[in-house]
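In the previous chapter we treated chains in isolation. Here, by contrast, the input contains four separate entities that must be folded as one system, with a combined length of 630 residues.
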Amino acid sequence: MGDTTQRVLSLLNLLQQRPVWTGTELAERLGVTTRSVRRDVERLRALGYPVRAEHGTGGGYQLGAGKALPPLLLDDEEAVAVAVSLRLAAGGTVAGLGEAAVRSLAKLDQVLPARLRAEVKGVIDATVSLDSPVTPVDADVLVALARAIRTPERATFDYTKADGDRSERRVEPYRLVAAGRRWYLMAWDLDRDDWRTFRLDRMAAARGTGWRFKPREAPDAVEFVRASITQAPYRFVAKVRIAASANEVAQFVPSTMAVVEPDGDGHSILTAGADDLDYIAYHVVRLGWPVTVIEPPELRDAMRRLGERLAAASS
Amino acid sequence: MGDTTQRVLSLLNLLQQRPVWTGTELAERLGVTTRSVRRDVERLRALGYPVRAEHGTGGGYQLGAGKALPPLLLDDEEAVAVAVSLRLAAGGTVAGLGEAAVRSLAKLDQVLPARLRAEVKGVIDATVSLDSPVTPVDADVLVALARAIRTPERATFDYTKADGDRSERRVEPYRLVAAGRRWYLMAWDLDRDDWRTFRLDRMAAARGTGWRFKPREAPDAVEFVRASITQAPYRFVAKVRIAASANEVAQFVPSTMAVVEPDGDGHSILTAGADDLDYIAYHVVRLGWPVTVIEPPELRDAMRRLGERLAAASS
DNA sequence: GGGGATCAGGACAGTTTCGGTCCGCATCCC
DNA sequence: GGGATGCGGACCGAAACTGTCCTGATCCCC
């Protein structure tokens, strides 16, 4: 048993728990001499984790930011917090970090003790955002597939096609791709004997089978998925004219959600993709400036309907 | 230099990167004999991390879920994803995991390499939710304070009181408390020489000073904060009657956001706290069922105003 | 400027651990 | 049965570790 390995890990843990420790404190906690602590610190440094030290009264050891990230030692509560946050970020619509978030989640999920897994589920169930009563993508599906891809092992899931057909699929999973606001799986379909892409929001009960396989030559995943998506990522593209300058509007509308362009005369044009017109209607009107719908006509209908409901409710 | 310590850490890393490895694969990667790999695996097990092994073709080593969480080894992208997710969860309004999320964030933040920190900032800036153009609480403030509390070291920040007075405060920080939808800091105010609570959303430029202090006897933080909050956590408590059964409504409204009670005759009463009545107005009406406002009258006004704007925009 | 607290690290010696090599065995799947 | 894989005991020389000195460096506060 490597007693020293464990001790170095504990040291790392301690240094993460509290920013500053004196050598004697650490020595007590670790049950060794201060000399050994110094040696352990030396070891950590040799491993690439920059431990800064300050002399004099009030000084001590401190773990700093280095070139590489040291292993993160989380306690139970923290692990749950991380898992929950990642699930929300991955399943939701946070831009840009989807795939990495899923990878982290898969890592964490693999080693998460059962009792904590239950807790994560509890918090998630209680925290479905009011904005999306129906979660766009089940984080469990994401994790299961990410894991199967990593192993690599075959996976199965129930898939509902656009026309409503439901069937069980058996695949060799290759890549997860986030495109538009959706998640896609590129995989070798074992029944069709060909490459296919699947929308994750149409899957259910995805899981690895334990059957390992040897990856075959695969086409470029991102290209392949793009080619497979015939329909636009959003059902609607909304365009509205706002009685405020582009600068003013842009201050309240993040660039990932919509494009804002000046339209002369202190007006601007806002363009946003969406599946849910109510959502757009609300947020555009909420900005407070007068708005005119340019397209689509359905947005006008949605606004009228929402307006009528609000009028009815307020009387 | 503990060559073996490093190797064990690498092994842990490898096992997290991909679920299944054969002994020979690991031996190659680590540059040792398979015998040593077996010994390293043994070491990991002794450290409490359950490494499962499967015999036969297609077998291999696999890191399983144990009693304790092993140190998480993240690559750059993953670290960014975790940091961003945590910031969103901590700064936002996710119920229940606030304090643990902040703790994890502080841990991660302490060791996050500079280049990644810049990346995190970039993603965050681009991802402010459309729902909250103004972030309720700056995650940087949270992290700075959490860190100062842990060290412990004195902190300073600019504070804007309810009456608009702005001043710089110097404190010995003690606890962060999430109450209602707000974050509070309980601290010893060095200028007033007394315990005070501060709302984090009224702070700016919070940072540790590097001045360490010895914690003094402190009253119970949660109690103290509760007592200090004279005003309700929300500015408004909205109550509406919905023409749908409590069961139907509850299906679309998470229990953390609102309380739904049956009101006889297939109707139900929804109660929710909020600072932003537009938000409540939209989400309640969006459910699709006819709604009657019970209180507050301001909600009725908000609905009328929003309704008029929508009507105007749709014509 | 002095004293106290703190980190830094060399030298030595006894003990422990480590890692490679060589084996025989247990599983699992085809 | 054969092949791939994990399991672990025994042995031995080399290497690493730890504690115990001891001497310096800093830094801060009085």
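The CA atoms of residues 225 and 306 of chain A lie 36 Å apart. Chain A touches chain B through 108 residues (CB under 8 Å). Compare these points with the single-chain example from earlier in the chapter.
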